[in-house]
Write a structure and sequence with these properties.
By secondary structure, this protein is mostly helical. It has helices at residues 2-29, 34-39, 45-55, 61-73, 87-122, 127-141, 144-158, 170-199, 203-210, 215-245, 247-252, 258-267, 271-299, 301-309. The protein has 14 helices and no strands. The longest helix is centred in the middle third of the chain and has 36 residues, at 87-122.
């Protein structure tokens, strides 16, 4: 198991380097240049060219990429073109906000999705099943930014119950967390229902019932444990997505997280900041998937035995 984890961690290095190259390439191919964006209408061709030279943007892409990778191995993500601050410090100051929002959202979505998924599977074709799956389809197909705006209009402007922007108190987390969580809960609910329906029809479940075990023990000890593997995968992917995919929600609710930071950096063509944010989020997404793989071993002993064979 330990060797498998080390292999996965080492595999992160070439993957992250490839992500850096892709981000560098995309940012270089987009129109405009940092000097023109920073100076705006005040800039002359001479001052713009001088600023681009100071930033090192006038060098070839492969040279800038090589220097960036070299600095990465030295422990530096570079300096922001706009603020002049260290990129890592800038990200680190906002990352806790994004982590809190993503963690709260995934807890809510997982709790709602798994519990309702179990109940709808056990009570298949009941009124509760039809209502839950219909609501799940609605929330899964609804754009999160639209739901966020509607929630602000209803709960903040019309009713005055909850704040509409920032994260100063626990009340500020309710609207953005629920906005993010409901769509994820819908997908988790549908997947849990599908896997549970498949699990409760297996022979080992019928055998457990024939032995006289209680229905609760049959559902939670036998069926749920075997139905959780694909659900755990989706939860891990959802958490990784929430870390980087909360960009729109952070914009809607004016939250100073990594998502809002990367959007601002893209607008200003702040290449070190954009690359640093992408690298940071990609690392934690892949880390979340590694944790999911490790959890597999504790959920299913058969997978743990496969890991042990890799030694």
């Amino acid at each position: 198991m330990g060797r498998y984890i080390i292999r996965r961690v080492l595999f992160l290095i070439p993957t992250l380097l490839a992500i850096v190259f892709i981000v560098f390439g995309i940012m270089s191919l987009t129109p405009n240049n940092p000097g023109a964006v920073i100076l705006g209408i005040r800039g002359t061709p001479e001052t713009i060219a001088e600023l681009n030279h100071q930033l090192g943007y006038d060098r070839p892409l492969i040279i800038r990429y090589g220097d960036y990778v070299l600095n990465l191995f030295k422990g530096s993500m570079g300096t922001s073109y706009i603020t002049g601050r260290d990129v890592f410090s800038e990200i680190l100051s906002r990352f806790p906000t994004t982590v809190k929002l993503a963690t709260l959202s995934i807890i809510i979505s997982t709790t709602i999705g798994i519990l309702l998924g179990i109940v709808t599977a056990v009570k298949q074709y009941s009124f509760f099943d039809i209502l839950s799956t219909s609501l799940a389809m609605f929330f899964a197909s609804m754009p999160s930014f639209w739901f966020g705006i509607m929630a602000i209009l209803l709960f903040s402007l019309m009713l005055g119950l909850l704040p509409s922007n920032g994260l100063e108190s626990w009340k500020h987390y309710i609207l953005p967390a629920m906005t993010l969580a409901l769509a994820e809960a819908a997908s988790i609910l549908r997947l849990t229902r599908t896997t549970m329906l498949e699990a409760i029809r297996q022979d080992y479940v019928r055998t457990a019932r024939a032995k006289g075990q209680s229905e609760r023990k049959v559902i939670f000890r036998h069926a749920l444990k075997n139905a959780l593997l694909p659900v755990v995968t989706v939860i891990g992917m959802d958490f990784g997505w929430l870390l980087g995919g909360a960009v729109v929600i952070e914009q809607v609710f004016s939250i100073n997280g990594v998502g809002k930071l990367i959007v601002e950096a893209i607008r200003m063509k702040d290449i070190p900041q954009v690359t640093g944010c992408a690298l940071f989020l990609a690392f934690f997404f892949m880390l979340a998937m590694l944790v999911v793989d490790i959890l597999y071993a504790y959920i299913d002993p058969r997978i743990k035995s496969r890991y042990q064979k890799l030694r």
